[in-house]
Prior knowledge:
Blueprint: H1 8-22, H2 26-38, H3 42-70, H4 72-92, H5 96-124, H6 130-159, H7 164-181, H8 196-201, H9 206-237, H10 241-265, H11 271-291, H12 295-309, H13 312-323, H14 328-337, H15 341-356, H16 358-390
Helix pairs in contact: 1-5, 1-6, 1-7, 2-3, 3-4, 3-5, 3-14, 4-5, 4-7, 5-14, 6-10, 6-13, 9-10, 9-12, 9-13, 9-14, 9-15, 9-16, 10-12, 11-12, 11-13, 11-16, 13-14, 15-16
Amino acid sequence: MGKQPNSYKKLLPVLLCYIVMGFVDVVGVSTGYAQRDFDLSPTLAQLLPSMVFIWFLLLSVPIGILQNNYGKRRMLIIGVTITALGMFIPFVLYTYVSLLACFVMLGIGNTIIQVSSNPLLQDVVSKDRFSSFMSLSQFIKAISSLLGPIIVTYMVVSFANWKLIFLIYGILSILTGLWLGATPINENKTAFKATIASSLGLLKNPFILAMVVAIFLIVGLDVGMNTNIQNLLMLEYGISLENASLGISLYFAALMVSRFIAAIVLTKVRDLDFLLWCIVLTIVFLIALLLAPSTFLAYTFIFLIGLSSANFFPLIFSMTINLIPERANEISALMIMAVVGGAIIPPLMGVLNNYFGISAGFMLLLLSVIYLLYSYFLLNRRIKSNSSNSSL
Length: 392
């Protein structure tokens, strides 16, 4: 690793893949338009996002095996290509079934991109800058996700056709795939041939299992905040839905700002130290949010939680991969599989909200972050152990 330190000719097409990765969030705005256009019931409408996110659970490990055996760059190009093909389907034929097919391909393509992009990024940056570039990559993805609804609105106002976004996304995906395909990258490869059994067998390693659980809880924290901010503000402070929605905007703005700042700060600050401060501050801010006596302070602590928690995923992902680089493909697959936490934690919060009140749901998020403090101590111990072994 580190044989191609920060080669921007190789880095730029890999970073561009994170823009394509952000295309998956078009499913949010698309669901509303599809429900209106096809007069769908809420159940049928919610099938659309399900068609996207189910593949993270089903395909992450097989994709990790394929990229371990056949190459990360090759798999990433396949993922971008599948995404491009899916984008053109509703533009050519716009029916409910064709939109389902579009999101199936988008989900499969995005799963491949998420599993393959991070280990390939590791191959084109120096080891000591990996965490920094991971935060930068998540910032790029966040910008892409944020621009989706804006582009849709522009297409509706200017051309009365929201589906033009699929054409734009399809063309950008093709250009990204062509650029990556024309860029030779020397991948770090191992003689070890991965299998489903060997990949899932990594979960028997207590350290790896703990890090996968950490990713599960991190994604659950993020989605849980996103989906419960409105309810917290309305129920605790009696404000309107429109004003409560401002809390979500503040949270996402904080995520973007924090990831951009972290990309710079992590070039100067040790990853582990940065992680500890982020965890401690998030715990403090969550407790403060639950005790906030006014709407203004609630908004403030929501923003601060976004700032402090935004880099949990890139930090834990990058440090785990750096500690066990020879199994990077399989670990990446397991961690992307753990993204399913975003589909499990929020319903659990809903159950707690129903029986014990809105604060109980946020207590689950607080417990999740406390677990991350345990993860920090595991990482610290593993890093010290690796340093001791390498000095022998």
